[in-house]
Design goal:
Layout: H1 2-14, E1 30-32, E2 35-38, E3 42-44, E4 48-50, E5 54-57, E6 61-63, E7 66-67, E8 71-74, E9 78-80, E10 85-86, E11 90-93, E12 97-99, E13 104-105, E14 109-112, E15 117-122, E16 125-130, H2 132-159, H3 161-173, H4 175-202, H5 207-244, H6 251-276, H7 281-307
Parallel strand pairs: 1-4, 2-5, 3-6, 4-7, 5-8, 6-9, 7-10, 8-11, 9-12, 10-13, 11-14
Antiparallel strand pairs: 15-16
């Protein structure tokens, strides 16, 4: 009997304590304010309590601690671990919610989706695709870019009509030379700018010139590109007017016609993408045509601008305009 009692006592001592006897370790929370992040993931630690909301755009959120005023995740996922305690509503735009057993959520969950979203990391840069909305955003971006280009071309015609004509005649006379010079300028512009800036920065006297050189070079480059593109568009429009037998003389109309010819494939590719909802051979062909046309126009135009010194001089004689013929007076016999 005594041996049996000793065995029972030993077994009792070896048995784990009941669950109610095990007290969880107390957690001392460190308070933080609103957590806002762009293009990165956010992790709320187990001992962290966010007193306001958590807002993340282009990243995912993992919550181990507490959040008092809701969570908003755009373009990412939300993971609530067993120790998570979230008060307020959760808003997920294009993402998913993973809620482990034991996670506490006192508010509602709202899903907003625009189609298929994906997120990939290339190094530290996340890429978020907006599904169907992405096509409309691409179209809006293209329209905005072309609108800005149109305003710059209009300003170029107003303030530099004669340089535009000189560049257009130079490109028409020597297109291959203009293209070669423009291509060389596009390739060597940034390396030459960097080398010149480094050379000036070596000397103490040249450091202030670096701060002036870089913005000035960028402004001149933009001016040369817009001048050349405007000249190309104007020249193409004048050629179309000649073929159609229209009376030339309005540079604004000619430039508008040429710009439509050069930029129509780009706009058409975006509209086809939105209309079809898929990236097919037709859109691929239009994109290839638009990229080729714009590349040739920009490169040849900037080459013509360089040849003419930004339109300051002629490289070919200006066209000879025939003087108006004098009316002949014939004598009539009475």
């Amino acid at each position: 009997m005594r041996k049996a009692c000793l065995t029972l006592a030993a077994i009792t001592l070896l048995m784990p304590l009941p669950a109610f006897a095990q007290q969880p370790d107390p957690v001392t929370y460190r308070l933080t304010g609103t957590r806002i992040a762009l293009a990165q993931n956010v992790h709320i630690e187990r001992d962290e309590e966010v007193t306001d909301a958590v807002v993340v755009v282009g990243g995912s959120v993992t919550i181990d601690g507490r959040v008092r005023d809701g969570v908003v995740v755009v373009g990412g996922n939300l993971h609530l671990t067993p120790t998570a305690d979230v008060h307020g509503d959760v808003v997920l735009v294009g993402g998913e919610l993973t809620r482990d057993a034991g996670a506490q959520l006192s508010g509602g969950v709202n899903y907003i989706s625009f189609g298929e979203w994906s997120r990939r990391n290339f190094g530290f840069v996340p890429v978020v695709r907006f599904g169907e909305v992405g096509r409309w955003l691409s179209l809006a971006g293209t329209v905005a870019r072309l609108s800005i280009l149109g305003v710059l071309m209009l300003a170029m015609l107003i303030i530099a009509r004669a340089p535009v004509a000189r560049v257009g005649r130079a490109v028409h006379a020597e297109p291959l030379r203009a293209f070669a010079i423009g291509l060389a300028a596009e390739i060597f512009f940034i390396p030459l700018l960097i080398a010149t800036s480094v050379g000036l920065a070596i000397t103490i006297i040249g450091i202030p010139f670096v701060a002036v050189l870089i913005p000035l070079a960028c402004v001149v480059a933009v001016f040369a590109f817009v001048l050349g593109f405007t000249a190309i568009a104007c020249r193409i429009g004048e050629s179309i007017e000649d073929r159609l037998g229209w009376q030339p003389g309005n540079a604004f109309v000619a430039t508008a016609i040429g710009a439509i010819v050069l930029l129509a494939p780009t706009l058409l590719a975006r509209f086809v993408n939105v209309a079809t909802g898929s990236f097919g051979p037709t859109e691929l062909l239009l994109i290839a045509i638009s990229v080729t046309v714009e590349f040739l126009a920009w490169t040849t135009g900037v080459g013509g601008a360089i040849i003419t010194g930004l339109g300051r001089w002629y490289t070919v004689p200006p066209p000879i305009v025939a003087p108006p013929s004098k009316p002949t007076i014939t004598a009539t016999a009475f």
